[in-house]
Amino acid sequence: MLRIVSTSYVQELEDFFRDNYKKDMEKLAEYWPDTNSIAVDYALLEKHSPEIADDLIENPDTIIKASEEALASQGLVNTEGDRVAPRVRFFNLPQSILIRNINSTHINKFVSIEGVINKITDVRPKVEVAVFECMHDGRRITVDQTGELFGKLNEPIRCPQCERNAFKLMLDETRFTDMQKMQVQEPLEALVRGEQAKNIDIWMEGDLTNKLFAGDKVEITGILRLIPPKHKSAVYSIYIHAVHVQQIECEFEEIELTEEEEAQIKEFGDDPKIYSKLIGSVAPSIYGHNEIKEALALQLFGGTKNKKLPDGMKIRADMHILLIGDPGTAKSQLLNYVYNLAPKGVFVGGKSATGAGLTATAEKDEFGEGGWTLKAGALVLASGGHACIDEFDKMGDEDRSAMHEAMEQQRISIAKAGIVTTFKSETSILAAANPKYGRFDPMSLPAEQFNIPPTLLSRFDLIFPIKDVLDEKKDRAMAQHILSAHQTSGIRGTGAEGVLTDEELARAEEKIMPVLDPELLRKYIAYARRNISPVLTPEAMSKIEEYYVDLRALGERQGTVATTPRQLEALVRLGEASARGRLSSRVEIEDAERSIRLHMFVMHEIGIDPETGMFDADIIATGHTQSKMDKVRSLESVIKNLTKEYDVVTKDMIVEEAKNAGLDVKDIDSLLAILKKDGYVYEPKHGQYRSAGSR
Ligand code: ADP
Ligand code: MG
């Protein structure tokens, strides 16, 4: 197993530690044995002895052992006179490998990887040195268990004294160490678009445990090892036995820009037509939906990050957008485009993403081998980026409640089985959903057909209903657009070039080619997000203020609440994103105007009460218009009065009284349904009603 190391290696390592780690060793001696390891920089070793450094990569077990011998032989003792013999934890290897590139050539080699922790178990005790007692003659036998990570306890073969083999483990004499297991996956921002993130298991012992948390970005240095298969099989699983772990704060992929690209990016920023170019580059194969595309572009840029109020409260910078509409209106496609353009993004289907899939959970499963495992879901892993959630309306109840917190407080808490913990999820959400009955009923308000609780709805900055309406002119244009997309996409890269004339091809491509190259646009977005933090100018502030106050005043005159403070914050975020989109640190009037225009568009699409023609934020806040809520309340008081007067209140009696109160007979069923759903009225027997009491 272990190669014999030439004694010159140990001597050289002794020199190395004396030259480079003398101070650290003395310090260590002071705290020994509470601190029992020393982190050693690979770069220093490489400088001292390139040969040993190379050998460390190839034969880590041997060299680490030699290093530990070299340290122990320095003869350091602590204040109590105990010998100081620390573990050596090498880090900072010259290069880290991608998790996806790990293969059989790395077995038993020293490797370094970067990633995000997506699962982590409890810390549990593991036998390090087991003490056995022979059941026949009581002799003590000590067996070192280091390296045995898989629950199997190494027993002595036979008692050296009586040669028999029946032993008892002496738990109180056995020495334990801590043990923790986690799974690390590739950072989303390092993936080429649409790729699946790969992961690997990591085992940690001793002082490496209890340092990290699910959702952390980490750099792990360790030895790649094999897991013996449970039954006879030639296929092994792998894991990394960690030697050094470190949390990293920075973004993984500092976008690498060539000088040429940077110049190009700056040029785009100065282009007065930048916004029409951006809109033309988001989902070019999708016809129409220009406001949505503009909003999606703004979402990609996001509001100014890290804004803190003087009392320490944070203000959310991430924008949330909801597309809700008829089937086949390109919602999923739009989500796909954003996912591909976002420098860091995840795509999840609401239904498939239950539990840890979307938010975060604590679970008992095989990975934790009986203990608890904390799992970070998509929203945690995508923190700092975008999450595209399709079929948002079909999400499970548990996720839905976690979603409230994730969207506003930008964290996800878990309180379960004594585990109380929070995950960070600073993620912009782009969600797509169908209306309540699959498609919009044109006879009633879109806002009344959202199958999403109003509390969740009000957390979206912008909500776009997409209706599939018959319109011959539009249908024809869209058909031409889609057909062109199909026509041209089949030509590029299939060898069919030359089937169409150049002119035919150019005409078709003109419709669907993105204005900006997607790769460059991705870099443009990453560059803007990283380098530009826009601030409101006084002019932009008063513009937004005017708009907001006017809307509120209008609402007051009409007896409705037109806008809420949440929407004011949304306006600011949109304005900031607009400035960032043109690489400006100042939010100017034009940015405020863009933000207001989009807000107006959405208000018109969903926020108008068709009966009164008024703006009404209540629609989003409660799912019903103010005028409808007035009717609901008036029916409620009708039923309340009847309940006081009669023991049995039938539907006919309600209809009769409601007519007297000026309500329309055809509305009564739907009003009654609202009252019943909200618990103000109940039906003790079929066809009989009672008011739920005096409110
Ligand atoms: P949804 O998720 O809204 O149900 P999809 O995104 O799956 O719909 O779209 C269905 C198909 O129709 C896709 O292939 C999409 O490209 C096409 N489609 C729908 N609307 C448009 C449009 N406006 N322009 C181009 N293609 C469209
Ligand atoms: Mg869809």
Explain this structure to me?
Helices cover 37% and strands 21% of the residues. It is an alpha/beta fold and 695 residues long. It has a five-stranded mixed beta barrel with strand order 3-7-8-10-9. A hairpin with a 5-residue loop joins strand 4 and strand 5. The protein starts with 6 loop residues before the first helix and ends with a strand. The model has no long low-confidence stretch (mean pLDDT 83). The chain binds adenosine-5'-diphosphate and magnesium ion. Residues 286-288, 327-333, 478, 481-482 line the site of adenosine-5'-diphosphate. The site of magnesium ion has 3 residues, from helix 9.
List the helices and strands and how they pair.
Elements lengths: L6 H14 L1 H10 L5 E5 H7 L1 H9 L1 H13 L14 E5 L18 E12 L2 E11 L5 E5 L22 E3 L5 E11 L13 E7 L11 E11 L9 E11 L11 H12 L3 H8 L8 H12 L5 E2 L5 E2 L5 E5 L5 H11 L3 E5 L10 E5 L7 E5 L1 H4 L4 E5 L6 H12 L2 E6 L2 E6 L3 E6 L20 H4 L4 E5 L5 H18 L12 H11 L5 H14 L3 E2 L1 H21 L6 H17 L4 E2 L1 H18 L1 E2 L4 E2 L2 H5 L3 H20 L5 H10 L7 H10 L3 E2 L7 E2 L4
Parallel strand pairs: 1-2, 8-10, 13-20, 13-21, 14-17, 17-20, 22-23
Antiparallel strand pairs: 3-7, 3-9, 3-16, 4-5, 4-6, 4-7, 7-8, 9-10, 11-12, 15-16, 18-19, 24-25, 26-27
The chain binds adenosine-5'-diphosphate and magnesium ion (MG).
Adenosine-5'-diphosphate binds next to helix 9 and helix 13.
